[in-house]
Amino acid sequence: MAKHVLLTREESKNKPWSTKLMEAGFTVSEVPMIETKAIRAEILVHAYDWIIFTSANTVHYYFQMGGHLPKSIKIAVIGEKTADELKYHGYSADFQPTLYTTDVFIVEWLNLGMEPQRVLIPKSSMARSEIAKCFSEQGHDVTENIIYETGLPEHACESLQKATSKQSIDVAIFASPSAWNNFVDCYQEDISKLTIASIGPVTTDVIRKSGFSVLYEPENYTMEQICQQLIEGEL
């Protein structure tokens, strides 16, 4: 019997990877463990030198609420999908780190050696403030604006039970701490029997602090790489 893989990202972000994994030979269930909703925020973007987008969601919701980017502002992004979403809206990034991690982003952006900058960071209600803290400590004027919130989809727990009723989950993929925490609250079987894949170190750290191990974490934190790891390691 084919191994059963669980995808837990938002519904719109699961489909291409579900197809890829099924074509490789896995059975796949898509059960979103998070959903996001916009929060209206007034942002005076002209007051800043830089805007930093840390995820595709921040780009999506920034423009959904009518945001724009003047030519005077520089744009920094973390992540391939974030850059793609920015291009979809007609913009390109002035700065991207060599690896798609917060730590590398902080070091490489600070290594640009700029005079104190006014920096805007749109974010989710659950996002950490690591970038803002580090930049502020180096003399930059940083403002964070919450533009969307993350929660548990209404029928997520019931959908998860349905997905496991015919075949137990063998491998579960998580792309955020929120998805993991919601999964733990909903899952009724033995988590220790799962093979867990995490898209990056922040999520991995939360999983490990919960007492569970992570077998797969890609070097460059993309779903493309994590799917390839599963294909090579589980088939």
TrEMBL record:
InterPro entries named among the record's database cross-references: 4pyrrol_syn_uPrphyn_synt_sf, 4pyrrol_synth_uPrphyn_synth, UROS/Hem4
Record has Protein transport as a keyword: no
Role summary: Catalyzes cyclization of the linear tetrapyrrole, hydroxymethylbilane, to the macrocyclic uroporphyrinogen III.
UniProt keyword list: Lyase, Porphyrin biosynthesis
Enzyme class: lyase
Residue ranges annotated for the Tetrapyrrole biosynthesis uroporphyrinogen III synthase domain, each copy included: 17-226
UniProt keyword annotation of Magnesium present: no
Pathway annotation: Porphyrin-containing compound metabolism; protoporphyrin-IX biosynthesis; coproporphyrinogen-III from 5-aminolevulinate: step 3/4
Superkingdom per UniProt: Bacteria
SUPFAM superfamilies linked: HemD-like
Protein name per the record: Uroporphyrinogen-III synthase
Family: Belongs to the uroporphyrinogen-III synthase family.
Substrates-to-products reaction catalysed: hydroxymethylbilane = uroporphyrinogen III + H2O
Catalytic activity, EC: 4.2.1.75
Species of origin: Listeria weihenstephanensis
Any one GO BP annotation for this protein: uroporphyrinogen III biosynthetic process
Lineage: Bacteria, Bacillati, Bacillota, Bacilli, Bacillales
